[in-house]
Amino acid sequence: MIKNIFLTGPRNVGKSTIIKAALVLFVGTVGGFTTLPKLLNDGRRVFLMDSFNLDYPANYIPYICEVGKNAKLEPILKTFDDFGVRILDDSLQKEVDLVVMDELGVFESEAIYFQEKVKSCLASPIPVLGVIKAKDTKFLKEISDRTDVQVVNVTVNNRKLIKTEIQNIIVKQFNPIANEERR
C-alpha cells in the first residue's frame, strides 16, 4: 500500500481544492504546509508558505519567492531551509497523523535542507498528501520516482473522480487508527 500521495496536473485544475475537501473528512492531527498566492501592490503575484502546525514569528512573512531580475520570480531559499524545515521537523516530532505538502515545485530546487526534510517525512510512518509540480527538476523527479510515492494526475475530466478517491483514502487509510497500525 502506498502511503504518500501527490497530486499533479495543470495550474488551476483543482489539486489544492481536492486536498482541502479531503481534509474536511480527516479526524486526526495535520502538519505540514500549503503555499498561498499573494498579490503585491504593483499587481504581481508571489507566494508564501503557510503552516498547519506552526505560527511564524511576528513581523515575518514567509515568502517563498520574490520578484527578481526581468520581473522573474526567484526563490527565497531561507524560507524553505529555515521555516519549511521547522514546519516539517515539528510535524515529525509531534507525530501528527498526516503531513500535507501543498506544493512542491521548482523554487525548492536549491533548498537542500528542505529537500532532505521532505525525504525524511516521506520515509517516516506518517502518510503524506501533497501536490507536486509537473516539472523536470532533479528534486521533483526523486520524489516522483520513490517506491513509496504515488503520483496522481488530475485533469478537468477526472478531478471529481480523483476527489472522491482521495476522500476515500483519507477516511479509510490515513485516519489515526490506520496510522497507529503503521507505527
Describe this structure in words.
The protein has 6 helices and 8 strands; from the N terminus they run E-H-E-E-E-E-H-E-H-E-H-E-H-H. With 183 residues, the chain is an alpha/beta fold. Helix 2 (77-93) runs parallel beside helix 3. The strands form 2 sheets. It has a 6-stranded mixed β-sheet with strand order 3-2-6-7-1-8, with helices on both faces.
Principal-axis shape: globular
Instruction: Extract low-pLDDT stretches.
Output: none
Number of helices: 6
- The average pLDDT is 92
Q: How big a fraction of the residues is strand? A: 15-25%
Main β-sheet, spatial strand arrangement: 3-2-6-7-1-8
- Got a strand count? 8
Q: Report the end-to-end length measured between terminal Cα atoms.
A: 15 Å
Radius of gyration: 16 Å
Q: Specify the helix fraction band.
A: 25-40%
Order of helices and strands: EHEEEEHEHEHEHH
Largest sheet: 6 strands, mixed
Give me the secondary-structure category: alpha/beta
Q: What attributes characterize this protein structure?
A:
single chain, 183 residues, alpha/beta, 6-stranded mixed beta sheet, two-stranded antiparallel sheet, 6 helices, 8 strands
Question: Would you summarize the structure shown here?
Answer:
The chain is an alpha/beta fold and 183 residues long.
Structural topology:
Blueprint: E1 4-8, H1 15-24, E2 30-39, E3 45-51, E4 65-67, E5 73-75, H2 77-93, E6 98-104, H3 112-123, E7 128-132, H4 138-144, E8 149-153, H5 159-172, H6 176-182
Parallel strand pairs: 1-7, 1-8, 2-6, 6-7
Antiparallel strand pairs: 2-3, 4-5
